[in-house]
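Good morning C.,

I know you're traveling, so I'll keep this short. The sequence:
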Amino acid sequence: MTTTVAQEPSQTASPKSMSPQQIRKGRRMALLLMAVGFGPIILASAMFYGGWLNPAEHTNNGALVTPLVPLSDLQLQTAQGAPLAARFGPTQTSATWLLLVVADNCTEVCQQLLYTTRQTNIALGKYATRVSRGAALTSLPPALAQRWPADFERMERFEPLPAQTPVWPPGVEPTQAPQLLLVDPLGNIMMRYPASVPGGDVLDDLKHLLKISRIG
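The tokens, ready to paste straight into the viewer:
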């Protein structure tokens, strides 16, 4: 009679039993996987902000924010109480470009900017899903608050995080004049527009950015 001896399943070597060569090989593999996952995003961002993807003949209609200001400086939160900046970054695969209207009391000039932002997003057509819209407004006139759900259903409202004070980019002071900020999917405030900006100018910039960008 033949006796069959069951073989024990192979076990993965613990770090203590691994040789220095195996440990180095494992580290190289981990770095390679990170490069494959995040490399294209980081490279595309570096190429764009370094000017390699921005042809010299193209002139931006908005004012570039230099150096870039992180969205986290604005200390904003969503309606659910989550930090807005948490939606952005190289690990957030669903991050989009963001058109953000900032103002103190949203008077007629501010409301025109809200309308311009909405129409610009619609005019993007099939690319509209790559751009979201939001507003950080200190207060709304009663009439605007009443029609907000109908006129700006897809524009989120953001407010400051508790006990935090927003730090605005240079040239941006919502208490003095409303402005439109453009935020990239990595969470950088990269461009700003005054309230007088024609919608076509914002649209031209967005089309150019979406064409050359591989992020968002």
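Safe travels,
E.
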